[in-house]
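Q: Got a minute? One more chain.
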Amino acid sequence: MLFVLLAVLFSLVVSAAVVLYVAYPHRGEQVPGVPWLGDAMARAAGAAPVIDDEERDLLRMQ
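A: Always. Here it is, folded:
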């Protein structure tokens, strides 16, 4: 029972973080009340690897 409760809480925290990111930092706005969280999310998104258009086309050809 404890495992299920922890899994549900973890799921809610992750989904809240995604919604918060899409609502504010992804659009270039500050998160109201906790600007440090928006800055951390923006840094994490900037550090994530991105596939360029040329790389995507090469992957499709294979």
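A: The chain has three helices and no strands.
Q: Perfect, thanks.
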